[in-house]
Amino acid sequence: MKRCLRDVLRREGGWRGFVAPGVVALGLVTSASAQTPAPIEFGFLWHMHQPIYTPGSNILETDASGRFSFSVQDVHNQRTGPYTTWPRNAIQSGSGQPNLGAQVSFSGSLVENLNTLAANGNGNFQNWDGAYQQARGFNTAEGNARLDLVNFNYHHALSPLLDTRDLRMQIKLHKHMVDQQFGGPPEDQSRGYFPAETAFSARMIPALKAEGIEWTLFDSIHLERATQGYPHTNGSNLYAPNRADQINPALPDEQWVQLNNLWAPSRVAAPFAYRPHMAQYVDPNTGEIEKIVAVPAARYEGNEDGRGGFGALQYEQVFSQYRQLNTDPDHPMFVVLHHDGDNFGGGSEAYYHGNFNNMVNWVSNTPDYNATTVQDYLDRFPVDENDVVHIAPGSWAGADNGDPEFKKWLGDPDPNTGWSPDRNSWAVLTAAKNHVFTADDNVAVQDLQNIIDNTGNATERAWHYLLQAEASDHWYWDGTESWDSNVTLGSNLAVEQANQVLASLNDETTAPSVFLPQRESYNPGGFEWSDTPEPSDFEVWTFAYDVSGLDSVTLKYRLDNDGFNPLDSTDNETYAGGDEVGDWMSLSMSSSDIEPPDGILDPLVRAERFSAMITGYSEVLLDYYVEAVDNNGNIERSEIQSVYVGQSTIGGTGPDGPGFAMDGQLDSEAELAASHGGQNLYYAVEGDQLYLATEDGGEGADVFIFLADGPGELGPAQWAKSGQVAGWDAFLANENDNGWSGWFDTEGDQGESATGNGGGYLEGVLDLAAELGLDEIPEEIWVAVALFDTADGGELLADSLVSGPGNGDGNLDRIEYIRLSLLASVLGDYNGNGVVDAADYTVWADSFNSTTDLAADGNGDGVVNAADYTIWADNFGNTSALSSGAFPIPEPASLTMLLAAGGLLLGRRRD
């Protein structure tokens, strides 16, 4: 049976304070009160890049063509400092610090441009690389280069959307360039990697490992979004993650920190998202696992540092907001400040000199912080090989805010014309790379320098142009100047060279090229940007092409057995599968194409779009991939991807089962269970599924619905609120500030929720039997609705309790829960008023021994006798949901007095 960490964190009164085996190693639980915070480590990544502005032309030829309305040479001249001496100067000023340095990602296209300018007599760039070579010779206390020229893609290609083959070639070329341009002994060659736009996906790992890379940076929010219970807010300019990605164990509430004094709309996970971990890739053919050290780059802090460095980012003010959580000296928090090193404030003279010098002075005079390179950090604090996490796909805040679909480079079509310049470019590139791959399989590359110089055989020249066409700039700037045709221009040049090889082939054995399959919508059955859930039925689409033509393109998909994909299992990641997944099902994918508008360069080759719909599923986890077969029988299978399909069936049929719609509106079948002071509790039951709803939190308070098999002892309130709460088994929550909703402390990964965010309801559904560990739904549960002021330390709003006005002590006590019967009728309710109370005893007593007045015949044996009294006694206090409100659970003393008044003293059915 699948289990996740959250499965073992449940206890009466919640999970706070429980430490499960292995949790400390993952950084999920700390004992801040018992430990002194360790110094926070921090470091820098400065990104330097300019593209080949016109594939096939150098910087001088581009300017001479008049293709752009600005001077490309001036763009470089305006950045002379970052491209020459300023980074060296900054690092040199911190030479008194043992570990201080910086990572610099320097693209190969920028190197080509600077060399061309220098060779043409541009005085700004004579011996431009000398300061970089010098700084690489400065060593840290660990013997590493203070200026680490990290591995990068030669032409700034977007790594997650490439194949392993061309990603490896981009990295190979960059490594070769660094060796030729900057020299240095082999030990100075970087072991790290910075992906363009900080765009990461686990599918990159095989290429990185094959090229000898040991660690990679990624944007921290994608580790946070892949965590159960992530407090999502649309204020981060990202829609909610898909539940298929949320497989990292949930974190304690106090480890979700809201940062102040900088732009940070979403909470950050400290220390979890400020520590390197291991990311893994599972080979879908063999099940073999490859791991790489994944170093989180601090999303908001890096963005703020890019405005001007020390002073623009208030280092100590910001870092001190989570320093109290930095209590593991063996794995201290590491804040990596990553941003462009040649743009805006981050590329200014003040950044590298005055502000950086001020930072050096500051860190030299405080023991609480230490500046370090990534390699020094990893050498001093090695990552546990078993500390494996999942990282959702996405990039940094500076482009598309980290959209998991990379929409900045994969924009949606125009709704009126169906045209997307981004998608057109990927269709052209998909076809072009198949020509180049096929040529490479028959006439191999002899020398990487030939690719850079555009010399050598036809395959090497084809790679030269293909890699230029892959630069992400062409997608980033689409719709302006001539960028929309740049990918096609480079691809056409590549195909012309590759076809010189293909012309002599009688047969070929290269598999088809298949673009990473996409889906529409990304969150089927869930929410993206609107208040209306997406349809559960969804489309999977891709581009596919082969030089020999395609025989078939098929969508394969299968059902996960329990809706959760744990990190310690590989069944979902392999084609063979296992006990946790079902058999593959197949759908033939239909092809389509669209004519480019006027003014767009015609491609020599272009892949068609293939698509298929997956319909009829709800509340399930699905795996899927695309299989393409060419006319020679060569087969290509895409990566296996997973998607959680939510409840909405808009536009689709959906399977049989509970029909609760998670849309932030009250479901029609919901009954009113209790009401007080304008706050209402609604419920419904279908099978083992329990539906609960109350007015949402968009009016200044956070809303909670607590659920308990029996309220426990008082314990600390949830979410760092003030006061105490009687122990719960699970709770549903809605955060006022951002409209986020979700379940906490549920068994496994179950539970769906939604909120109207200011104008509707907080609603949720879960399998109650599974939650309570029962074979069937219980006869009753205890429920409480409570609103708290939204800020940390917020107080309980007494009038929010649906059980009544409350006792005003600031706590949610046992007596302030209600007991809710889940039976269609209530055993022992002999007068039919929905409550089993003393009046039902009177009905029983008046008809005792009767065989005709059977209102109190609770067991249906045809006579009112002592057995029916036992039924009444066992169910005393139970209630059905009536408009007058449910019966609050009495404190023991109150129960005693009530029963004594009826002439009896009975025991509670449950404690």
TrEMBL record:
It comes from Algisphaera agarilytica. Residues 44-230 form the Glycoside hydrolase family 57 N-terminal domain. It holds the Pfam family Dockerin_1. One of its GO terms (molecular function) is hydrolase activity, hydrolyzing O-glycosyl compounds. Keywords: Carbohydrate metabolism. GO terms for biological process: polysaccharide catabolic process. It comes from the Bacteria. InterPro entries: Dockerin_1_rpt, Dockerin_dom_sf, EF_Hand_1_Ca_BS, GH57_Enzymes, Glyco_hydro/deAcase_b/a-brl, Glyco_hydro_38_N_sf, Glyco_hydro_57_N. This is Glycoside hydrolase family 57 N-terminal domain-containing protein. The keyword Membrane does not apply. The keyword Acetylation does not apply. Belongs to the glycosyl hydrolase 57 family.
